[in-house]
């Protein structure tokens, strides 16, 4: 509640400070996953005004919010703003950080990476879409078999355009290749075929 108050009042420096304090005091060690869910909830449920959004994200970053918490905050906040061109720079910086920082990508939930890809879709940034799609299998793999649902949603969105359809299939194959045992791989392939159709059967079975 305190974090939402800071965000609602536009006290972005105070928000960053409180987030860092709460992370250290209440969500240390193996509680970090819960902290990341709190961050996502706050920035999804509390809409930052359009004329504040770029400055707000810059301020929380300057005051020490970084890595996965910043990525989640920025991506969750951006999803409410389709027409703020200045956010394109923020989105590209987030994508680059995910690409270059493996531990940040592994800590970032796959739905967040999907939301980043959706930002690039809204902005008609094909290069951003394709590069973010390459990150999704890694993020989805970190959450176990539940990640297959995010992969399925991402494929459905990628397959709607000729410019991105092949990236969707590439993403599915990369996700399947990451699986570490035959039984899990077979179940995931069966699920994907059931949800996405038999056209993907042969490419996935060849991958397997």
Concise summary:
The chain is mostly helical. It is built from 13 helices and no strands.
Describe what this molecule looks like in 3D:
The structure is a single chain. By secondary structure, the protein is mostly helical. Helix content is 75%, strand content 0%. The chain is built from 13 helices and no strands. Helix 1 runs antiparallel to helix 2 and helix 10 packs antiparallel against helix 11. 35% of the residues are buried.
Topology:
Elements (H helix, E strand, L loop, with lengths): L1 H8 L2 H15 L5 H14 L7 H10 L4 H12 L8 H14 L1 H6 L2 H13 L3 H16 L5 H12 L6 H14 L3 H15 L4 H7 L1
Helix pairs in contact: 1-2, 2-4, 3-5, 4-5, 5-6, 5-8, 6-9, 8-9, 8-10, 9-10, 9-11, 10-11, 10-12
Estimate percent helicity: over 70%
Enumerate how many helices there are, as a single number: 13
What value does the average pLDDT take?
A: 95
How does the helix and strand content classify structurally? mainly alpha
Main beta sheet, described? none
Strand proportion: under 5%
* Number of β-strand runs: 0
What's the alpha carbon Rg, rounded to whole Å? 18 Å
Low-confidence stretches: none
Report how far the terminal alpha carbons are from each other.
Answer: 47 Å
Principal-axis shape = globular
From N to C, what is the helix and strand string?
HHHHHHHHHHHHH
């Amino acid at each position: 509640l305190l974090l939402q108050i800071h965000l609602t009042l536009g006290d972005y420096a105070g928000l960053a400070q409180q987030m860092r304090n709460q992370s250290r005091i209440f969500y240390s060690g193996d509680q970090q996953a819960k902290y990341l869910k709190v961050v996502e909830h706050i920035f999804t449920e509390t809409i930052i005004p359009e004329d504040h959004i770029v400055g707000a994200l810059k301020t929380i970053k300057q005051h020490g919010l970084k890595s996965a918490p910043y990525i989640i905050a920025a991506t969750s906040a951006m999803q409410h703003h389709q027409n703020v061109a200045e956010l394109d720079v923020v989105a590209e910086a987030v994508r680059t950080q995910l690409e270059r920082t493996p531990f940040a990508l592994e800590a970032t939930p796959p739905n967040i990476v999907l939301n980043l890809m959706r930002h690039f879709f809204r902005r008609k940034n094909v290069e951003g879409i394709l590069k973010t799609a390459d990150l999704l299998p890694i993020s989805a793999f970190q959450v176990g078999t539940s990640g297959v649902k995010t992969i399925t949603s991402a494929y459905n969105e990628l397959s709607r355009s000729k410019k991105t359809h092949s990236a969707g299939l590439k993403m599915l194959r990369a996700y399947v290749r990451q699986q570490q045992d035959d039984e899990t791989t077979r179940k995931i392939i069966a699920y994907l075929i059931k949800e996405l159709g038999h056209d993907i059967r042969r490419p996935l079975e060849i991958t397997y």
